[in-house]
Each structure stands twice: as C-alpha cells, then as structure tokens.
C-alpha cells in the first residue's frame, strides 16, 4: 500500500479529484490518500495559502497528487506551484502530449513528451525594479548542474521508454552564453546514450515545426520559460488543457497535477472533465511502480473516450463529471 498526499485544490479541483479517487477505488489500486488542502480554500479558512501540515505530509510521503490551486491575485502572494517546485527541488516538469481517439485534434500520430527545467531560468524569482529610473530586470539564471540534470532526465526517460530521439529547444543564437551552456550540457549527456539521436533546434523554429509537423518529435527538453510556453502549445496540439497530464519530479519527491486551472466558471456544476487529473494520476502510478493498474485504467479511459455520450461537454458529450467517472469504472476490464 502506498500513502499519497492528495491536494483536492480549488474550484473544480474537489470534483475531479473525487472522480480519480472513485476510479482508483473501483480498480483496487493499492494507494491510501492523505488528504490536505492548500490555496484559496485554506486561505479563506485559516489565512494560510500553503499550510505546514501539507508540506510535512509531502515530506513524509514523497508523492503527491494535486488539483488546481487558485493563488489570490495581489501583491505578496507568491505562486503556490512555484513555491512547491522550489521547496522540493522538483526540477523536472514532464508533460506528455499524445493524440487520442475520441479527443478532437487537428492532428494524428503525435506521441511526444516534453521535459521542462522547472526551478531555474526566468522563474528563479530574481527581479529588480527601479521605479525612479523605470527599469525592471528579470534575471534568468541557469546553472550547469541544472542543465545536466534536466537533460539527463530526458535522456534517461527516452532510454527507459524505448524512444528514439531527444530534441533540445534553445535560443543560443541570441543567448550566447546560457544557450551554449545548455547545448554543451545536453551534448555531453547525449554521449552516454549513443542509441538515442540528439538534435537541437532554435525555439522559434521549434514552434513552427511543432505546429507544422508535430509527429516528428519524440522527447523534447528545454529551459523553464520556453518549456512553459511549449508545453501549452503541445497541449493545444492534442486536445487542450482539459486532457493533458503533468508531473513535477525531483530526486526525492514528485507531485502530479492536471495542468489546467481551477476553472471557476464551471466549478461546482459537475461539468469538469476529469481526464487531465486522471491521466496525472496514471503518471503517478507509473512513478510508484504500479504500471499494471495504470494500464488497466488507461484502457478503460480510452474506451470511454470513444463513447461520446458518456463524456463531458467539453469533449462533445452530455455526461457529468461523476457520470463520466462511472462510465470509466464500467469499462474497467
Ligand atoms: P483554467 O484552466 O482554470 O480555465 C480555462 C478554461 O478552460 C475555462 O473556460 C474552464 O472552464 C476550462 N477548463 C479548464 N479545465 C477544465 C476541465 N477539466 N474540464 C472542462 N473545462 C475546463 O484557467 P484560468 O481561468 O486562466 O485560471 C483560473 C484559476 O486557476 C486562476 O486562479 C489560476 O491562478 C489558477 N490556475 C492554477 C493552475 C494550477 O494550480 N496548476 C494552473 C493554471 C491556472
Ligand atoms: Mg504554464
């Protein structure tokens, strides 16, 4: 039995995490949940955005499944997601993008995984604003160690999953020093994986190629800001934010999350699509060595996606969140 920290989140978070809990229970997945919240919900209750009890739970269990969190708008509220990433050194942001029958997309045959460096670059929090001079500096700091670690993670994943190619996206033609450091780090790592093709592309060309011919990509690795943008672009290629999963992984701790937000416009109405959250849960099962359960649930999900009427409105169906979850349970082989 695995103990997992479950963060229901704000808005639609509780509805989609309930769907995942129900499906996991029906499939008799050997996990027990330690449920603790954060975000707007706990802020309203106790004035705490990220309660210590939740941090302690993640520290203990090393694995979390997280619903979307609302960070209150305004000065002094640091993004909870960024805080968690820094706190547990979750330096890999891993986002698969796969075209799936039953999920509308302009493309077919996409099966790629994006590795985004998750703690450095423009997200280091190094900002200086000189009001008098009207100058704002946002410092993008990357380290050689950080470059090595994310590139190694991408190649190790490729090797483990029988993937053929790793593409590095960068801007070394302009960012001469930082870009070159990333390329060199990745090239050095690539020598340890002679069976995997290594190529690099400049980020703007990369965007064009992804939109034009996404099937050519396999594993993509990049720095924080480029990865943030590319990962949403990739989500758009395969059906949007409601269906793609994500993971924040470090050497000791990992937090899995749907990449969409708390969707306040549909919260509490039973309209939310639980697919992204469920797929994040399945990534989590692979991570904790329960791939068999993940495969079985994935097959049930894929079967349900082909039954339009059993799906939620965003997928063209009429079912509620819980009806969709029940259909997945009914399809468990
Ligand atoms: P959003 O992703 O919550 O919503 C964008 C649109 O997509 C809305 O129309 C929403 O109804 C729809 N949508 C999102 N998820 C869906 C699902 N599972 N099923 C069906 N429809 C879905 O983005 P928005 O509106 O920009 O952000 C709302 C709040 O979420 C903000 O407070 C933001 O800070 C937070 N947020 C949190 C994230 C996280 O915790 N990982 C990520 C992104 C935003
Ligand atoms: Mg983003």
TrEMBL record:
Leader sequence range is none
Could you tell me which PROSITE patterns the record lists for this protein? IDH_IMDH
Q: Which GO terms describe its molecular function?
A: isocitrate dehydrogenase (NAD+) activity; magnesium ion binding; NAD binding
- Read off the InterPro entries from this record: IsoCit/isopropylmalate_DH_CS, IsoPropMal-DH-like_dom
Ranges where the Isopropylmalate dehydrogenase-like domain occurs? 3-328
Gene Ontology biological process terms, A to Z: isocitrate metabolic process; tricarboxylic acid cycle
Which keywords does this Swiss-Prot/TrEMBL entry list?
A: Oxidoreductase
Stored Gene3D superfamilies = Isopropylmalate Dehydrogenase (3.40.718.10)
Q: Which family does it belong to?
A: Belongs to the isocitrate and isopropylmalate dehydrogenases family.
Q: What is this protein called?
A: Isocitrate dehydrogenase
């Amino acid at each position: 039995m695995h103990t997992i920290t479950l963060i229901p989140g704000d808005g639609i978070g509780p509805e989609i995490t309930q769907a995942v809990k129900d499906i996991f229970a029906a499939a008799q997945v050997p996990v027990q949940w330690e449920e603790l919240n954060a975000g707007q919900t706990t802020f309203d209750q106790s004035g705490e955005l990220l309660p210590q009890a939740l941090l302690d739970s993640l520290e203990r269990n090393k694995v979390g499944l997280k619903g979307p969190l609302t960070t209150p708008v305004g000065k002094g509220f640091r993004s909870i997601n960024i805080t968690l990433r820094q706190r547990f050194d979750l330096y890999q942001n891993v986002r698969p993008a796969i075209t799936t029958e039953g999920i509308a997309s302009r493309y077919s045959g996409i099966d790629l995984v994006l590795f985004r460096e998750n703690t450095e670059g423009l997200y280091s929090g190094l900002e200086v604003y000189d009001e008098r001079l009207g100058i704002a500096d946002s410092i993008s700091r990357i380290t050689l160690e950080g470059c090595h670690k994310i590139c190694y993670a991408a190649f190790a994943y490729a090797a483990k999953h029988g993937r053929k190619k790793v593409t590095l996206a960068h801007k070394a033609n302009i960012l001469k020093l930082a870009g070159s450091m990333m390329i060199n780090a990745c090239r050095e790592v690539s020598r340890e994986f002679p069976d995997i093709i290594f190529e690099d592309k400049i980020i703007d060309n990369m965007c064009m190629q992804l939109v034009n011919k996404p099937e050519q990509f396999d594993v993509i690795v990049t720095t924080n800001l480029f990865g943030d943008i590319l990962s949403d672009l990739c989500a758009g290629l395969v059906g949007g934010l409601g269906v793609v999963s994500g993971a924040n992984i470090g050497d000791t701790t990992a937090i899995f999350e749907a990449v969409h937000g708390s969707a306040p416009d549909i919260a509490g109405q039973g309209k939310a699509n639980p697919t992204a959250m469920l797929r994040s849960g399945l990534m989590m099962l692979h991570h904790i060595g329960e791939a068999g359960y993940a495969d079985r649930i994935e097959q049930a999900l894929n079967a349900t996606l082909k039954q339009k009427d059993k799906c939620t409105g965003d997928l063209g169906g009429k079912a509620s969140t819980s009806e969709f979850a029940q259909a997945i349970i009914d399809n468990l082989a």
